[in-house]
Design brief:
- By secondary structure, the protein is α/β, with parallel strands linked by helices.
- It is built from two helices and four strands; from the N terminus they run E-H-E-H-E-E.
- The protein has a four-stranded parallel sheet with strand order 3-2-1-4, with helices on one face.
- Helix 2 links the parallel strand 2 and strand 3.
């Protein structure tokens, strides 16, 4: 486990954030897949993440529904925790 890299999607949501904090507390490095850059600052300033900032990196995945959306994000990871859900657009029923 020592310094293994975990990709987490949905890390800004309730369940995903709990997964993020738990992984960091257990000593994992985390790559957080997020939809927009504004979420980065929210994670960086969260008190639970403060002691682990050196163990978090971010990747922007604007549209997770694309076939190749996570190709770059999964490079070098040992585990994936996929908690995100696509957000319906205005044309979705």
């Amino acid at each position: 486990m020592a310094q293994e890299l975990v990709l987490i999607t949905g890390g800004t949501g309730f369940v995903g954030y709990a997964c993020l904090v738990r992984a960091l507390d257990q000593g994992y490095r985390v790559r957080l897949a997020i939809r927009n850059e504004s979420s980065i600052e929210k994670i960086k300033t969260a008190p639970s993440c403060q002691p682990h900032l050196g163990s978090i990196d971010f990747v922007i995945v604007k549209d997770m529904t694309g076939e190749t959306a996570f190709d770059d994000a999964v490079q070098g990871v040992s585990y994936v925790i996929h908690v995100a859900s696509p957000t319906p657009g205005p044309d979705t029923v």
